[in-house]
Specification:
- Chains A, B, C, D, E, F, G, H, I, J: It is an enzyme of class 4 (lyase).
- Chains A, B, C, D, E, F, G, H, I, J: InterPro entries: Cyanase, Cyanate_lyase_C, Cyanate_lyase_C_sf, CYNS_N, Lambda_DNA-bd_dom_sf.
- Chains A, B, C, D, E, F, G, H, I, J: Belongs to the cyanase family.
- 10 copies of one chain form a homodecamer.
- By secondary structure, chain A is an alpha+beta fold.
- The first copy, chain A, folds into 2 domains: 66 residues, 434 Repressor (Amino-terminal Domain) (Orthogonal Bundle); 59 residues, Cyanate Lyase, Chain: A, domain 2 (2-Layer Sandwich), CATH 3.30.1160.10.
- Chain A contains 6 helices and 2 strands, in the order ααααααββ.
- In chain A, strands 1-2 form a two-stranded antiparallel sheet.
- In chain A, a hairpin with a 6-residue loop joins strand 1 and strand 2.
- The first copy, chain A, is globular.
- Chain A starts with 6 loop residues before the first helix and ends with a strand.
- At the A-B interface, helix 3, helix 6, strand 1 and strand 2 of A face helix 3, helix 6, strand 1 and strand 2 of B.
Chain lengths: 151, 151, 151, 151, 151, 151, 151, 151, 151, 151
């Protein structure tokens, strides 16, 4: 096992180990005692773990000990490098922002005034919505409204 | 009043008239008997109205009659032209896709297998979530799961 | 043989092995009992195999066993990274979308109304069209029409 | 009626007149005695009409006579300016090239050797495919195979 | 005087009127009773005015009354469209983010943990710093720290 | 330990060693006797160290001796490659330039005339601003004003 | 004559008037009593004139009086919007930066240490260099060296 | 020592060896008996050496003999890949082209007519210009004027 | 007839007039007594005419007299703005540079050494090459070889 | 010698071996009995060799036997990745398309009607054109004209 040199390498090792060992994301979430949603985002290199959680991740995936500090340090986040994502599932999310984003902007402003929905003080949840015409993905987001204030 | 030459001009006229007349999006939704969410998207040029709805939009905003066919024809959709959006509210939606998108992808695949959440057979809803630490924006999305099938 | 760390490496190994062993795509399709079209797309990393099919791919190309889970997991899809493709054959497909795409859009809307041709519930077929002036490529696509619905 | 200064303005006038007069693309195709597919592409500024066809287009849409030479001159073609198209229907066509393009390339090479499917000596056809699970769009393309030859 | 159709036109009219009338930004700030910093940002179309402030802006610059609602509605913000800014003064700000941004990120994380400095709950101040070797620009920014929280 | 081939590799080694050894940026600044702000920028490959400072960095992080000349040579600087940064903290800095940059430009010109705030004869400081509504990040910048002169 | 709304329109009017009246850039420089080099840059909208110079420009080119304040205000500068310039003469300047820029960087650092050649405290001069093999363009630049200093 | 596979690897080896051995660019220029300016450009992979010069470079930097043919073959040149350079010194050169390029174009055309300053039949020289207000960088360029001719 | 404000407007007027009057490019070339190739390039705004030629162009196309100086001034040239051209004919030229450009580079270097084929001291000719298998376009280019010289 | 994994590696090995062995492109062309122009394009990875030719290439450059199938399979072609090429020789070819491309388009359409010059059924030839004012590069291209046909 070689020492990890950055968070990106740790993320790669987690992805590889999870597939090789056949661990489900639900199992990982149980181990770190957070929601599946947050746990996956954190494992994919977007969030910082606590020291206890980092230890559990290292154990679960048999990672080199040098992964420990990287898992606890605020990572460089974000996965989109400018162009729209090519993956069809990710593109559909991008398309929703493109087609419905201006409407979402109008409705938030009509309800709350000038400001934004925070992407930091934010959480989301995914659920299956049973439906005879074909099941649906339910994606619920909740972000604090942050108003612009004059100064 | 000059004749409309394309849907984009009709959209501009609706935006201008709504601000000048002080009509709320809720009023528009009531007039066309759809959700506020869909109505704003349609007024911003992303959806096609029925003939009856188009007539109500023309009446509500005092538009030239040539707007009628344009409002009923499938428009050229989408508002993002490649680079991430500069507007802070729209950027936060883009950032959510960038930071949490890969996690959403993993979880949908774990629950449903290979496929996507449709952005066509899709609806969304925005609501205020009262919270003593500052109210939150609740943004709920529901899209049909479409599986890839071998052929 | 080293363990595979992601699907992209598995795809690279399949491409190398197929050329080295001189296996035709038709042979691969026979092995996994699907159409040639779907089989090639899947081997190039765009589709997920069933467990049985993954086993046959590993056997056919003498791959390391760690390829098995990667072949069954929904991959990150898409091969275009923003700019038009430089390869002349791929560019001709891109040019068809550029030159004839708006006409295709008009005709689908005239026939079906507002909506799209699905790229998920989709299949295609390639055939040789004998022609004295030079044989032709026949490329047939079939995708479910998905209508936008008001909500 | 003002004189037309370029083909793009003629295209805009055709689009506007067709919507205003409620003419279907099928009617236009009948008038110029070509397929619907080619006719729409030509009306959208991608193809050159014959002198007789140009006269029929001018009559059908009540265009200024200065449209006549513009309709017969080879136009500057193509509608994609670099970034993937934002419109969902056009994006699905782009995604098909992205996801299935490399497979199409492999299969054409396996069947025909090195070369391309022409996008010039090319035609396409759109049809409705009735299907109890929801009708499908059938999009058939036929392009001459052009081989690379050593020199 | 023609009616305003969007906020961008109102911004253009303010810029033109301020230069033509020779009004200083300090005078504008006095009129709306906010800091110079916020006032300029708002006049350049980045912030929403209150009803009283909008009235003062219209009076000060002799604008058409239709400017009133536009000045009070949350605008579409942001001035950078992807590429770095060409203007040398703006580029220096961009360069500071490029050269010193990663250091700023490290230090905020060392002091506060994982999270961001808000650009919404944010204010800034510009002052002249007298200096015998040439006066300096002092640019002070203050933004609320927003931590990421597990969910 | 292998010899360093460029400054970028030295930067990578510093980042890895700092996390592995758990050294704080404050400790590094103490070692080289400069501000934390400058020290972090220099360690991240943006500034040149003196010979004495380079020696202390090599000792502190146990680097190969070949790092010494690289640390003292003017590096190739800058971390933004065109597109806006994807990391949320860095993006907020970018957004501040996008939303408030034109206002900063106006106010510097009103106070100083035509010219720029230098990004070379420049320093910055980060501090925690205690606040009952949540602590704030205070980011102070000071750059020499450089006027354009006619020639 | 219509009132000017921004500096860009004034620049356009100067360019049009200079060609229509057949005034040489040398004549303009004589009128404003600066070098030809600075004068052309200023007329093309890159520099601010003094009040006296602005008056001479307005007189020389018969411009509307509303041009006066625009000519004296620090303009938004820069003519390159991201992609390399398409004009062959401008491209050669860009190519010189591309081919010889890294060598210039090395030599300035070898002579002066870490820092830059100012593009603000900067002047340039163009002259004809007679040469039997074909005359040469001599382009001399002089910019103050600005060192980075630790803080 | 491994064999070199391309010119880029030779360039990397020269850069590494020069820093490790502490050789100045002036020393290199003396060895190959050319100006410092041309020598640095050539060492950075932009120019081809003669056989004698290549031998001296290999000796001076202790390079593997396989570097010899690479140093004499016309290289693939240019260091800018589309976006403006991020390094502050290189960016200032880019900014000079952006701010003063159109003025340079006008003055070359006024003096020489339609054509360009060659970037091939071209040389440059860098010198220190002593100045009590701070030394200046003098950058002199000389390129043959190449006129466009009708044909 | 309105006065021309720049060369681009003159180019637009020539294009419009040529189509409206049905003048062939051969006729224009005869009028200005140059090759068809150069004449079309000049009419499309890429080259400067002599005073006599400008007069003939104005007469032939019935242009406003203000076109005269614009036709004689070195224009801002180039038609490609970064992305590959969308027009199929222009794209084929771009593809030839993409597919065969590196081979052309190798062969020019093998024959001439380091340098370029000038695009300024350059001419081209287009001819029909009769061929029983379908006529061919013959495109002959001739550009002076310009060697790089050490300095 | 390691086994080749794709055509790109084979191309790299050919480039390295040719420089190391000092083989001229003319020698390679003689070996495969095709023109120098086609041979270089093929060696640079743009064309497929016959089985006999592939054997000669492997022998001439002492390549591993696994190169054989790669040299005979239709490669992924094209060398331009979106932005204009930085190399000065390649850029001049790009500039010719930019400056003269629209004129070439006009003249091909005037002579042949709507269609393109094929870049597939295409050949080119490079020759030295002796000239007392400096030798010239003669670049002759011949491509089949492919007309658009109505369908």
């Amino acid at each position: 096992m070689t020492a990890f040199k950055n968070r990106q390498d740790v993320t790669g090792a987690i992805i590889t180990a999870r597939v090789a060992k056949g661990v489900s994301w639900g199992d990982v979430a149980t181990a770190v005692e957070q929601s599946k949603e947050w746990t996956v985002a954190a494992c994919l290199g977007q969030m910082a773990f606590t020291s206890v959680q980092a230890g559990k991740i290292v154990a679960l995936f048999d990672l080199d000990e040098t992964a420990l500090p990287w898992l606890q340090i605020p990572p460089s986040k974000g996965s989109l490098s400018g162009a729209p994502p090519a993956d069809p599932l990710l593109y559909r999310l991008h398309e929703i922002v493109s087609v419905f984003g201006p409407a979402i902007k109008e409705l938030i402003h009509e309800e709350f005034g000038d400001g934004i929905m925070s992407a930091i003080d934010f959480k989301f949840e995914i659920a299956r919505e049973a439906n005879p015409a074909g099941d649906r993905v339910s994606l619920n987001m909740s972000g604090k409204f942050l108003p612009y204030k004059a100064f």
